[in-house]
Design goal:
Largest sheet: 6 strands, antiparallel, barrel
Number of helices: 18
Oligomer: single chain
C-alpha cells in the first residue's frame, strides 16, 4: 500500500470551500450560535494528518485514448491527417495531467479499431476516450469500445468555436467536423447496448474550459473505479443484529471489483497483543496532540484505545486493507476490543482507510467513494429533525473523518454505548460549515446497488454533547419534506457525509460503475 501525504487543501479544491484554518473558519468559530468547542488546535490536527500521510493513496486512473478519422480522406486532402494528429496530441497532453494515458493514436479503419481495443484491454483501462477528430464511421469505433471493456467517453471537441464560412473549403470543414459523426456513434453504441457519454466543446480557447472540467470529472470518476477495483475491505465480526437494511450480498460487492476479506475478532486480538509499548505510546501522544481530551476520559481506557488503534493499523497492513466494516456483539475480551475501535477507526478513516461501524459494508464503500473524490466521507445517520429552525441533525457514534471537522475534535469518555455493549472513549465533532453532500449506497428489491444523494449546508449552532459526531444540516427541502423524499428511495439508514457539493461527481461515479444515482 502506498503512503502519500494528503494536505487538507485537497479536500476543498474546486469546491468553493476554504481550508479549516482560513479566515472564514475563524469568523464562524466566533459567530452567533457557535458552540464552545476548542478550535485552537485545528491547524495542529491538519499538520499531524499531513505528517502521518495516507495509508492508501487515491488511485490514478488509466485511460485509453484514440483519435478517429476516415482513411479515405488522407489521399484526398494532403496534410489533413497530420493536422488532426496535432489535435490528438493536444488532447493527450491535457489528459496526461489527469490520468495515466494509453495512446492508441489514430483509428481510421475497422482493423485499427480492433488493435486499439486490444491495446486498451491489455492495459486494463478504467475509461475509454474516443476523440472525434473528424468524421469517422461508427464501425471503426465499435470494436475499440467492445474490446476495451471499459466505460466510454466520446469527445466532440472542435478546434475553434466557429468556421470561417466565407473562406473554408472542404478540407477546412473536415478539420472542424467532429460533430458530424458523434450522433452516428451514439446511435450505434446505444443499439449495441454500450453505455457512453458525450462531452462537447472546443479543444482550446475561452469556450474550452467547461468541456475540460467535465472531462476532468470523468477522469476523477474513473479513478474511483480504479480504487474500488483495487480495494480490499475487511469485514470484522458481523452486522448489527436486526438492522435488515444493512444486510448485503458480498458477491454483489465483488461485482464492483473489490474484495471482501472476512476477519474474526481473534485476528484483531492477535495484532493488538503484538503492539509494542512504543507503538501504543506514539498513538497516545498523537491523540493528545489532535484531540481535546475531555475530563470524562478515564486514562486507562484511553491507553487501551490507543493500543487497539495501533493494533488496527497493524491489521490493516497485515491484510492490505483499504477499508474496514466492523461490529461484534461479544462478551469478555471481544467486548473490550469492540468497545475500543472508535479512536483507531477515526484515525484510519482520515488516512484513507474508511471505517464503518455496525458492520455496514455498503456505507464503507460510500465512504470510500467520497474519500477518493477528495471530499471526506464521514460515517453518519439522521438523528433528528429540527422543525423550528429547519435543519436535520446528523451524526453517529463511531469513526468520523477527522480531516473535515469544523473544530478540534473532542475525545469524550462514555460509560455506556447506547444499544451496544461496552464503554470507553468516543469521538465528537461537527463537520465544517458550508456546502456538504450526503451519499447513501443502498440496494433495491432485486439486489442492485443504488446511490441516493442530497446536497445541503452545514451551519453552526448548538449540537448534542454525547460523544458522537453531529452536525446541523440544512437541505433545500424543509426537514419533514426532505425525510419523506429521502425515504421514498429505500435508503439504508447510514450515509457518508462529505464537504462540498459533489452530487455531479457522484453521478459520474455511478455512471461509470453502472449504479443508478437518485438525487433528492
Amino acid at each position: 500500500m502506498a503512503r502519500n501525504g494528503w494536505p487538507l487543501e485537497h479536500l476543498t479544491r474546486a469546491r468553493g470551500v476554504r481550508t479549516v484554518d482560513g479566515p472564514r473558519r475563524a469568523a464562524e468559530a466566533t459567530g452567533p450560535g457557535a458552540d464552545a468547542t476548542d478550535n485552537s488546535g485545528l491547524a495542529e490536527v491538519a499538520d499531524a494528518l499531513h505528517r502521518l500521510g495516507r495509508l492508501v493513496a487515491p488511485a490514478r486512473p488509466v485511460v485509453g485514448v484514440c483519435a478517429i478519422g476516415l482513411h479515405a480522406y488522407w489521399a484526398q486532402f494532403p496534410g489533413l491527417r497530420e493536422r488532426l494528429l496535432g489535435y490528438a496530441h493536444a488532447v493527450v497532453d491535457r489528459l496526461s495531467a489527469m490520468a495515466e494515458v494509453v495512446d492508441a493514436g489514430m483509428v481510421d479503419t475497422e482493423g485499427a479499431g480492433r488493435q486499439a481495443g486490444d491495446q486498451f484491454a491489455r492495459a486494463g483501462v478504467d475509461l475509454t476516450i474516443v476523440h472525434a477528430a473528424t468524421y469517422a464511421a461508427s464501425a471503426q469505433v465499435l470494436p475499440v469500445v467492445q474490446r476495451a471493456g471499459a466505460p466510454v467517453l466520446v469527445l466532440n471537441l472542435q478546434p475553434a468555436a466557429r468556421l470561417d464560412y466565407e473562406h473554408a473549403d472542404t478540407a477546412e470543414w473536415l478539420a472542424h467536423c467532429s460533430a458530424c459523426c458523434v450522433p452516428e456513434i451514439a446511435g450505434a453504441l446505444a443499439r449495441c447496448g454500450v453505455p457512453f457519454r458525450v462531452v462537447s466543446g472546443t479543444l482550446a480557447g475561452p469556450h474550452s474550459e467547461p468541456a475540460w472540467a467535465e472531462i476532468q470529472g470523468w477522469c476523477q470518476a474513473a479513478g474511483v473505479r480504479r480504487s474500488l477495483r483495487d480495494a480490499r475491505i475487511g469485514f470484522l465480526g458481523h452486522t448489527y443484529p436486526g438492522m435488515l437494511d444493512m444486510y448485503t450480498d458480498f458477491t454483489q460487492h465483488h461485482r464492483l471489483g473489490l474484495h471482501v476479506d472476512v476477519l474474526e475478532m481473534e485476528d484483531l486480538a492477535a495484532e493488538v497483543e503484538a503492539v509494542r509499548p512504543d507503538e501504543a505510546e506514539a498513538v497516545l501522544t498523537l491523540t493528545h496532540r489532535m484531540f481535546q481530551v475531555d475530563a470524562s476520559v478515564v486514562p486507562d481506557e484511553l491507553g487501551w484505545a490507543a493500543r487497539v488503534a495501533a493494533g488496527m493499523e497493524r491489521l490493516v497492513r497485515a491484510h492490505e486493507l483499504t477499508g474496514l466494516a466492523y461490529y461484534y456483539r461479544g462478551r469478555g475480551p471481544s467486548e473490550d476490543l469492540g468497545a475500543a475501535l472508535i479512536l483507531g477507526g477515526s484515525l484510519l478513516t482520515a488516512r484513507g482507510v474508511p471505517c464503518a461501524g455496525e458492520g455496514d459494508l455498503k456505507n464503507c464503500v460510500a465512504m470510500m467513494v467520497l474519500d477518493r473524490l477528495a471530499c471526506g466521507g464521514s460515517y453518519t445517520e439522521i438523528y433528528a429533525m429540527d422543525l423550528a429552525e429547519g435543519f436535520v441533525l446528523m451524526g453517529h457514534d463511531g469513526p468520523g473523518h477527522l480531516a473535515i471537522s469544523r473544530r478540534r475534535p473532542v475525545l469524550r469518555g462514555l460509560g455506556l454505548y447506547h444499544g451496544k455493549a461496552g464503554r470507553g472513549v468516543s469521538v465528537e465533532f461537527s463537520v465544517r460549515t458550508g456546502p456538504v453532500t450526503i451519499l447513501c449506497l443502498t440496494q433495491t428489491a432485486d439486489g442492485r446497488f443504488r446511490f441516493i444523494v442530497a446536497e445541503g449546508r452545514s451551519r453552526p449552532g448548538p449540537v448534542l454533547r454525547i460523544g458522537n459526531t453531529n452536525s446541523r444540516i440544512h437541505f433545500p427541502l424543509e426537514p419533514a419534506d426532505f425525510m419523506s423524499a429521502w425515504c421514498a428511495h429505500g435508503p439504508t439508514h447510514h450515509v457518508a457525509l462529505a464537504v462540498g457539493h459533489v452530487a455531479g461527481e457522484i453521478g459520474k461515479v455511478g455512471d461509470i460503475l453502472g449504479i443508478e444515482t437518485v438525487r433528492v
